[in-house]
Amino acid sequence: MAEEIKKLKFNRNADLQIEVVPLQTLTTVSKGHLITPHRTNFYHIFLFENCQPTHIVDFEPIKIEPYSLLFIDKDRVHQFDQLLNYEGRILIFTDDFFCTSEPDTRFLRSSILFNDLAGKPTIKLSKTNFERFVAICEDITEELRLPTDNLKHILLKNLLHNFLLLSEREKRKQGYTELKKGADLDYTLLFRDSLESNYTKLKSVNDYAKIICISEKRLGQATAKVLGKPPKEIITDRILLEAKRLLVHTNLSIKELGQELGFEDPAYFVRYFKKNTETTPVEFRESYLKK
After folding, report:
1. 36, 55, 59, 118: most buried, per Cβ within 10 A?
2. Residue closest to 117 by CA, chosen among 162, 192, 69, 179
3. What 3 state SS string does the chain have?
4. Range 209-214 contact pairs with CB under 8 angstroms and sequence separation of 24 or more
5. Tens digit of pLDDT for each residue in 137-157?
6. pTM value?
């Protein structure tokens, strides 16, 4: 294991931070990186053709069906099936590419695709519907081959936006319960964004309520309606997720790991972890590595 989880970044030399890559090419060229747990600073959309791998996202095995889409948010820790029996394409892009305005940012942050609160990150399609998404990817690839001009970014962004909108439509058809837009959702998304940036430093609900400029009670009402959980539980869940990632995917000592998460006292970190998981950090690490 390494001292830290491998982080892959989008090619800095790329003019535009969007790309479509055949999965067969990717799994041949980058095999070592892919079967190792890693995170990225870009979003993934897998278009699986006639294959059935098991993709692992933050300890959860996702069994893939032929002709399906899989959406993975940036910074999630995932790894490819060891057999690398993948067929299809992968569409990747960054915030810098898509979020060129406040409405773009809001759309992506609240999308039912990358903020999957139902725990169903895949969309199963018929072969005919699947081909519609493949066609958009081919249009993106073709546009990327053309010389750069003032319209290139706009055209590519519109193609991606259409891909996302069509994906949301398909997900709704399959029984996804839409989150009601409004203040509760807005506050919850602001809380989640703040938590992602500050969970190693700020651990009280009051800290986040102050950042969002609302009361603790109002924040609690919002997360209860949107996520069905109080803010304190959401904070704990985020800290524990990172702790589990570091325990399994790095060789940091318990003391180093606790410090990485903002716990100066190793004994307190051990008590905190055991209280919320009913196992010690060492027991969790050993049990997972035995699997």
Report:
1. 55
2. 179
3. CECCCEEECCCCCCCCCEEEEEHHHHHHHCHHHHCCCEEECCEEEEEECCCCCEEEECCEEEECCCCEEEEECCCCCEECCCCCCCCEEEEEECHHHHCCCHHHHHHHHHCCCCCCCCCCCEEECCHHHHHHHHHHHHHHHHHHHCCCCCCHHHHHHHHHHHHHHHHHHHHHHCCCCCCCCCHHHHHHHHHHHHHHHHCCCCCCHHHHHHHHCCCHHHHHHHHHHHCCCCHHHHHHHHHHHHHHHHHHHECCCHHHHHHHCCCCCHHHHHHHHHHHHCCCHHHHHHHHHHC
4. 212/187, 214/187
5. 999 999 999 999 999 999 999
6. 0.86
Amino acid at 51: C
Nearest residue to 250 via CA among 278, 200, 288, 280: 288
Question: Is the per-residue pLDDT at 117 higher than 60?
Answer: no
* Interior angle at CA 175, CA 171 and CA 176, nearest 5: 60
Q: Give the closest residue to 234 by CA, choosing from 210, 259, 252, 209.
A: 209
Q: How many residues does the chain have?
A: 291
CATH class of 6-173: mainly beta
Q: How many CB atoms sit inside 10 A of residue 24's CB? A: 15
Residue spans of the domains in the chain: they are 6-173, 183-290
Of 189, 260, 203, which is closest to residue 232 (Cα–Cα)? 203
Residue 84 binned pLDDT confidence (cut-offs 50, 70, 90): confident
Quote the CA–CA distance of 26 and 222 in Å, as a whole number: 41
Q: Give the CATH number of domain 183-290.
A: 1.10.10.60
Task: Evaluate whether 11 touches 40 at the Cβ level (below 8 Å).
Answer: no
| Joined tokens for residue 16 | 């535009």
CB atoms within 10 A of CB 203: 19
Which two three-digit tokens encode residue 289? 């590595």
Q: Give 118: exposed, middle or buried? Use CB within 10 Å, 0-12, 13-18, 19+.
A: exposed
